[in-house]
Specification:
heterodimer; A: 241 residues; alpha/beta; six-stranded mixed beta sheet; four-stranded antiparallel beta sheet; 10 strands; 37% helix; B: mainly alpha; 12 helices
Chain lengths: 241, 290
């Protein structure tokens, strides 16, 4: 049996006297797309940011592929564990400047052809390469942002509600890219606002509420089990919206 | 004793009193205008004029004392005191964690470095230094070290304060971009490179523009003052350019040092955003607005 991708032991995170995550213990498997769901303020994004060391737990331990995250150099870890945020946060300049941001740090050689292939992964054509980011739509910006993360050739990709502000076609493209990346061996952990999306693309789900891990199960099992009171009330809340 | 003699000879100079008498006539005109327009500022005009006169004469007397100083270590001591005061002033305007210490290091290092360069350039044989004796009206060591030093320190203080404030507000606004850069493996310095670059640029460009329009749009006060004081216009012009370059250099060095130490506080040793510091600064900003 493969060792877990992440092993999270009694992890808590507090800031300004407020507990965001409370004693979470969980293993995240290597070979599945893991989804994280929960109501607003449940600590989903915080949980994700712990995994590439954008923040550190105030208590507990995170093990990544048998290494204590605390002992791993942050920069190297973040090259290996890429992240896509809710907003694109592109840097000023062209699409090409953005794609090359990571490779220039890590001395990864990219030819023009490689960059075009990278764009193709997110369904953008070569014409975008020299375009200024100012003229891109929200969906295009998020796809460039995904391609920028992929340029670092990460082994794990953390996605924080990557399609929350996108139209349906951009959402579809990003979902297809995510599924394809997983088939190519990139491990995916995704925070999602949409139960439908998690049902479509994830294999296993973590359900967080008020900083606590309420449930971990296979996605199909999770959706057939939602008569459990807390999860049911969460679904209702989402439907009312 | 020579200094006291100089002060006394200045005060007994009839020209001085005639000048003051003319100035008093203008005060009378001001009072007349005030009465005419019913501003009820007459008492304030008299009080301000009298108080300002006493203060400025006292300052003049102190300057005569300071300008008479020839010992370099005392002059450095006075410049050092000015740097402490400048750092404190910036701290009061921008009351962020460690700003006094950071400003003190930046302003003192840059200003004293530039002043040392200025002072010791005078040691080159057959050369009077890049500033010293550029004007024939100056005769003592203190009379050039203190005014030039004060300009340098003031400029470094102002530019550094503006740079830190700009860097602070841009970092607070750009959390997403900074974390995006960190997520790609950028170091904290690289992640805020655009922000610090803009902070330097926005404060240096106006001064560089002032240099660029020298003589066409702008005849600076210092040059005008020297010409009125009897210096040759060409000498005054070169002097002005040298002063501008000194000021810019001191300001840039101070801004670089201070922004380095200041922005470092935004990150942890693990190359993460220091969220506690982040929130603390956001709250200071909100309190200031209130």
């Amino acid at each position: 049996m493969k060792s877990p991708l992440f092993s999270i032991n009694e992890v808590s995170f507090k800031i300004a006297e407020k507990t965001i995550l409370d004693h979470i213990s969980i293993n995240i498997a290597q070979d599945k797309i893991t989804g994280i769901i929960g109501p607003s303020g449940a600590g989903k994004s915080t949980f994700l940011r712990l995994l590439n060391k954008l923040i550190s737990p105030t208590a507990g331990q995170i093990i990544y592929r048998d290494n204590d995250l605390k002992e791993m150099p942050s920069q190297n870890l973040r090259k290996e564990i890429g992240m896509l945020q809710q907003q694109a946060f592109l840097f000023p300049g062209t699409v090409k400047d953005n794609l090359l941001y990571g490779p220039l740090i890590w001395n990864i050689d990219y030819s023009e052809e490689d960059l075009i292939q990278l764009l193709a992964k997110v369904a953008l054509d070569s014409g975008y390469l020299e375009r200024d980011i100012e003229g891109l739509s929200g969906g295009e910006q998020q796809r460039v942002s995904l391609a920028r993360s992929l340029a670092n050739q990460p082994r794990v990709l953390l996605l924080d509600e990557p399609t929350s502000s996108l139209d349906i076609s951009s959402e579809e493209i990003i979902e297809q890219t995510i599924t394809k990346l997983n088939e190519e061996g990139v491990k995916i952990i995704i925070v999602s606002h949409s139960l439908e999306q998690t049902e479509r693309i994830t294999d296993c789900l973590l359900f967080l509420r008020q900083g606590k891990m309420i449930e971990k199960s296979d996605t199909t099992e999770f959706f057939s089990n939602y008569n459990r009171n807390e999860i049911k009330s969460f679904f209702k809340k989402k439907e009312e919206k | 004793m020579a200094v006291i003699d100089e002060i006394l000879s200045n005060l007994t100079n009839p020209d001085l009193w005639i000048r003051l008498a003319f100035a008093s006539l203008l005060v009378i005109v001001l009072i007349g205008l005030s009465l005419w327009k019913d501003t009820k500022l007459e008492k304030k005009i008299i009080w301000s004029f009298a108080r300002g006169l006493v203060q400025i004469v006292l300052l003049g007397s102190i300057l005569v004392l300071i300008f008479g100083i020839e010992q370099l270590w005392i002059l450095y001591g006075i410049l050092f005191f000015m740097c402490v005061f400048a750092a404190y002033t910036n701290y009061k305007s921008y009351p962020y964690p460690k700003t006094f210490r950071i400003n003190f290091i930046g302003i003192t290092f840059s200003s004293l470095l530039i002043m040392t360069f200025v002072i010791f350039s005078g040691a080159i044989p057959n050369f009077n230094g890049i500033v010293y004796q550029a004007s024939n009206t100056q005769s003592t060591f203190g009379s050039f070290v203190i005014p030039i030093g004060s300009m340098t320190i003031f400029f470094a203080m102002r530019q550094t304060g503006l740079t830190l404030e700009r860097a602070k507000s841009d970092i607070l606004k750009s959390r997403g971009e900074i974390e995006a850069a960190l997520s790609l493996g950028a170091s904290p310095t690289k992640a805020i490179k655009n922000i610090t670059r803009d902070a330097f640029r926005v404060n240096l460009v106006p001064t560089l523009n002032r240099v660029a329009v020298l003589g066409v749009v702008n005849i600076p006060g210092l040059m005008s003052g020297m010409i009125v004081g009897g210096a040759s216009p060409i000498e005054a012009a070169v002097y002005q350019v040298v002063i501008f370059m000194m000021l810019l250099c001191a300001a840039f060095i101070s801004s670089i040092i201070c922004s380095h130490f200041f922005t470092k506080q935004f990150f942890t040793a693990d190359e993460q955003l220091n969220l506690e510091f982040f929130y603390k600064l956001s709250n200071i900003g909100k309190e200031k607005k209130k």
